[in-house]
């Protein structure tokens, strides 16, 4: 009696483990690339929020609801680090209690004024005393926005 061997179709456990190892290594190599995309997108979002805050502050300063005269401050951009939020308010002694505009910053993005600090004040003509450079940073990436 002659016995025939059955041919087996499929993968062995070792072949499957090798395929999973290769897929895992490829995913591991792609992680730094995709994380830099996320950091870049967050910096871009924060830069847009900063530009929006500046536009809203200029509009508020030109409306001059507080009645500032001459070169007096009329509006300001404030960074609240506790809730990670940019705010625009009129320049009064209320410590920014009446917020005209606000936006939460993306998680992990740090803002700092180069050569100065927040708040950024605008006079009743909607102008800054001098151009202001704001540095945005996240995950080793930086971007500098100049407000003028």
From TrEMBL:
Name of protein: Prepilin-type N-terminal cleavage/methylation domain-containing protein
Keyword Metal-binding in record: no
Lineage, uppermost ranks: Bacteria, Pseudomonadati, Pseudomonadota, Gammaproteobacteria, Pseudomonadales
Residue ranges of the TM segments: 12-30
Keywords attached to this entry: Membrane, Transmembrane, Transmembrane helix
SUPFAM superfamilies in UniProt: Pili subunits
